[in-house]
């Protein structure tokens, strides 16, 4: 009994233990079989990724993400590893651990050589490209703090020089591709979503999907008569299949001038002018402390930018709706130099059925821009800030002083006042247009308002496999109003403001209709693409402009032409309308054998209404080939994984410098003459001789290139050598002497650009650290190889009234090189002066003046080469003293990413280019000057042999002493960003938040002594490199926020 009872107790214990064990096993199994959820996004765009495969490693258990990029999966244990994979993305493995939510950001798995590149009327893989094309993608622009696409592209591509025409808000940029290929405009052709545009100012970097620059003839020849200066293809973003997404980007910045140009202080200025023999009026009182006008004209200025987009779609329809607002005030002028831009975008694509796709890309932009005078000898605010008399205050606290009122040239005049009723300072010492810059800024009013609409719609039919037929029609409408008015004021006898208003209304309408077909054929290892099409393009410009004075009252509300008293007799009006058309036929053949041997042939025919009958049609062919050496059986890769050799040749044209009616004889009405009886007669007179032979500028280009990839494409690069020759330059003609009228444009002149381009990129990662380095290098030699045989040179831009043709175009020289007197030191004493003047006339120097070289200008033996001097110092002694073109350019970017942090530095440099300090003028000898004029001046024999005395001769200001090295290295951007962890975002519906700070254009390394070595020369090619008081590019401290929902 006892044993049975003991056994029973043991059995009951075993049963209890068994029950406990079963319960524990059940609980453990329940704990192991749990659910993990998460969301998958692209690290590049932040957008969610539908269709991502999520598998438990080592099993077949898995799922795929929904349209919203989310997933749910059951795991067996904490030790499970989830594998995420998606076409075009690098696979990701994540250990489950104790987590129930795992969000993943996936990186693109597309190497540089596998990228798809947009070409004219199509796309190509970069690995089989036979042309020279540089590309910038959306991800390269994503974190760049720039208000315009031009600025964002600076320094990013070899062979492409992007220079701000000014640092003033809204001023735009000048772009040269592979050097200056024309004596006129060198701006490339802009194609935005297939539409021809003449600028990109209305585009925000936030809108851009990619930018491709077609640099050689093989890539640009498909645009024929418009491709000589290169082509910039811009593709804007589109929606993607999946859940709708919201992207928002915000920036706020404070701008200041980068480096101060030091000018003479009051004591230095008075001492300098005393040495120069320049004296003030006998009764003028000079204050103990002066005005630093440079400090007065500059100020801190805000800027901000907001950009937002809504995108998404289904497998049939995708859409993107976006808008952005950008506003920027000027560091000179504040809201007197302000730019506002509001733009909207609507892009839609719809797959109607298997063979029909339709879509549209619409954009609208509205600009407001007010600006101040700059980079001109006559009224530039920056120039006046440098040259203004430091003894003059900004305003008088006790009314106009007696020495001004008693001066016979001044007296009781209409002196302007500030908003507090104080009179602005007036200098009786300054001459001409040099006057109080603050007063001048505050007397000018008005601005430019502009509306731009660009829209295109297309239908693409695919009736057969590989055949696509596209019809695309586009419309651009740009219109605007430009109004400016001034108060009546007096600052000196030549700085007088007239009470009046000027108004202009203008409109441009462009139509474009293109039809083209593309057919892909594959036969074994042979791949062929044939494309052919037609294009019709029309551009109509019109304007009406008027000026009226005096104003009824000097207030904004009445500063309009229709408010002018007796407007019929007190206003002047003018207007014009002109139309040009271009009809084109084009085709392209691309052949690819086994991705080894590549061939491309292009032909375009263009007919332009700008030319006379018989000259209207031009034909522009190109041919290119490539050999992918790395795909050969004999190729032993080693570190190489890709190597391609390519070459191209082709011809492009340009009519960018030709206006409608240019080839026709012109007659001017309103000619007044006196008849034999002394009566005035009104008639017309011929003003320009006809030139029915006027034709295209033609650019022939040869390119040899190399594309390569090392170490599984961690290091990729391109190398190009090119020769680009532009013939039949459009220059003013020289009619025979018996013709009494000037000639219009003729084709005469050749310019050649030779150069090399290198682009390198390296990217890798080490654990959580990702890093990338990009580098580009360009070296170009520019030379004019022929000019009009009737001229020694083509005259360029003047500086002031004494420096005639400071730039010129001459055979054997760079285009628009600097010309002036060559100096050989400084005269130290009268003995040196006497020895010099005994053999030279036309120049009467004193000790302390520069020694001007008398050049060889006389050909004594008739061999065509001057071998003797003429003994006369004159403009005939002008020689090359500098060039605005750099010897080489470079750009580099370093980017680091580590656990949510990102850091990048971007630098750009230009080396070997010169700048003329053109705001120092011989006809304004009494004005202020940079401080080095005082500090480095000659004072006595032996004091210096490099800089002249105070009050030196005119020739010093038209010599190489005004030319300075304009080389620079600019740190365009230093930016630090942080992406908030997804765990911090929780379940609030936000997929990404990034905050960042940026220093833009904060650091400039240069020897140039002016404000900014990056002188754009306005929009006049012959003024490139002349600093007449250019508005400097500001430095900006910027903060930003990016949010994606």
From TrEMBL:
Highest taxon, organism lineage: Bacteria
Domain TonB-dependent receptor-like beta-barrel span(s) in chain numbering: 466-804
Predominant subcellular localization, coarse grouping: membrane
Bilayer topology: Multi-pass membrane protein
Record-annotated TonB-dependent receptor plug domain positions: 129-231
Compartment(s): Cell outer membrane
Pfam families: CarbopepD_reg_2, Plug, TonB_dep_Rec_b-barrel
One GO CC term, this protein: cell outer membrane
Keyword tags: Cell outer membrane, Membrane, Signal, TonB box, Transmembrane, Transmembrane beta strand, Transport
Family: Belongs to the TonB-dependent receptor family.
Protein name in the entry: TonB-linked outer membrane protein, SusC/RagA family
Organism placement in taxonomy: Bacteria, Pseudomonadati, Bacteroidota, Cytophagia, Cytophagales
